[in-house]
UniProtKB/TrEMBL annotation, chain B:
Alphabetical list of InterPro entries matching this protein: AAA+_ATPase, ABC_Ni/Peptide_Import, ABC_transporter-like_ATP-bd, ABC_transporter-like_CS, Oligopep_ABC_C, P-loop_NTPase
Similarity comment: family membership: Belongs to the ABC transporter superfamily.
Protein name in UniProt: ABC transporter ATP-binding protein
Naturally occurring in which organism (per UniProt): Candidatus Dormiibacter inghamiae
A GO biological-process term: peptide transport
Location relative to the cell: Cell membrane
GO MF entries: ATP binding; ATP hydrolysis activity
Amino acid sequence: MAEAPARPQLRSVWTAAEPILEVRGLTTWFPVRQGVLQRAVAHVHAVDGVDLSVRQGETLGLVGESGCGKTTLGRSILRLVEPTAGEVFFKGRDLLKLSGSELRRMRREVAIVFQDPYASLDPRQTVGEIVAEPLDIHGLAANRKQRHQRVQELLRVVGLNPGMAGRYPHEFSGGQRQRVGIARALAVDPTFIVCDEPVSALDVSIQAQIINLLQRLQKEFNLTYLFVAHDLSVVRHLCDRIAVMYLGRIVEIAGSNELHRRPKHPYTASLLSAIPIPDPKIERHRQRIILTGDVPSPVNPPSGCRFRTRCFKAQEKCAQEDPPLDTVQLGDHRAACFFPVE
Amino acid sequence: MTESDRTYDHLLEVRDLHTEFPTRGGRVHAVDGVSFHVDPGETLGIVGESGSGKSVTVLSVMRLLQPPGRIASGHVLYRGRDLASLDNAEMEEIRGADIAMIFQDPMTSFNPVFRSGWQVGEPLRIHRGLHPKEALKEAVGMFVKVGIPEPEKRAVQYPHEMSGGMRQRAMIAMGLTTAPSVLIADEPTTALDVTIQAQILELLQQVSREFGTATILITHNLGVVAGMCQRMMVMYAGRVVEEGPTDEVFAHPTHPYTWSLLRSMPRLDSDSTEPLLAIQGLPPDLTALPSGCAFHPRCPFREERCVQETPALLPVRERQRAACWVTQSGRDLTAGPPPRG
């Protein structure tokens, strides 16, 4: 890396053999304000003590249901949301301790692709301006000609006609808009991209196009992805490893195939069993684990294991003690459960 | 056909339905000659992407089209009676008692200013003339049936006080209070998390078994169709492009669009990380449909004829029909598309 300033952390120089991203004890709480004085009366425990590492070149999937904190976790890592506590080491430097110009420089290495291609693009800017914006912010184009060429190149890379740079987002379909969002993310030439539900808002026939594009770009530019999604079928297809979140915590993490074949946490098992498989012969004979009730409020999570109120294996111990993620440990496969699924 | 008074073939039968929307760019045929039927105790799946006309089809059946949208021609026969020719008051009766519809987003179908129990009991007050207290009691009973915990407490809550899954249950309860013989569910689980989706689908299956309700399930999720529906039809650009028993359609798709959809979805039970078979291009713009078969610009099996002439929906396999020149001429899609230069 050509970065000159001395690293502010005590950690030694990062090498590619270490995780590119290492998250420790990351916690993001949002205050619940009430009354005339808008005092914080409670906190939403959106992300509550997450440890996670992502290796260079891999795709780590982050799955869970709405409100589990997966989107907040992705955004806290990029400091689009300010975390309450914890550490986020990116290439050995704690992003949470960086400020001003240092943070801006790191932002050139990390990017995000958002879920809603309709809401995340400024309708008053042309697509060319949208893609050029990161170039301007980071001073990545020496002159107008270079800037123009780079925009054309980026549009071509994501499969759009460069001649469309002068058009506005409303002239594009959902899938094309998502391509614009991806081109914008690639503009800074990042090494790490948080993909926040990038295909959830798209039609089935378009989803596959974007999934294939993300896979191709990863190979072409040696990208590392944190892929946040609720659709486990998509995540299984794209990711090397998968982390499952429930109420602000990671409850299980394993290799993609391993997680699918041998889920240990009862929540993962029920999540997998609930996903419909497009094959009537298989689907009709599947055993579903139907969970009862709803996800409890993240303002006041249950004591002990947070999943116990919906768990079919819960016992006394689960209400009293909070199982750490390494309660079950089989090599790379870890799960936060006292009574794991066999 | 043992009942003496039964003079109709199917409980609900739609024949050659055409629904159009006048727009500045000309008339849009959102539904272009759609026919189907459904009988007691069975579940029919209607699959398609946005703009395929699947929702407009059922809104036409319910006569709930937003003007200027209108049924241009065709018949909607419920127990042999044509709903397309009923006046609004008569149709109101049918909607209240015989055919119920549940929507994707329960928040928009509930009135936010009334308590949920009051709304669920509404059809009983209006159509059965029940006393409000009686109607509320029935509503609470229905809450129990659809698995809403603490039903008395829920009945006096407002819709916004319930979770998404709970509201969807309450809406199903509202649809079922009058014991309708047809239940139309338009993307009933799309807005829900998978574990809640599984609960709701289980509930719909149970309803169909217990009450013998004929169910029409509209979804873009082929996995949901696989588990829920005995028969299915696939829509594209306002037309039915394929229909048949679910098992047959999945095992031997006879329309290239169905064939492509099945191959474009990542599957939970597959280890493959190879690129998916993506359908090229975009779903068609209804104001400027391609010539011939509307799918031809995206079709890997396309032939000369597909560009010029629109294929009709005709039998291709024993129990399957498809609107495709390629399969109608005897070609088997399972061999894959021809290589293209």
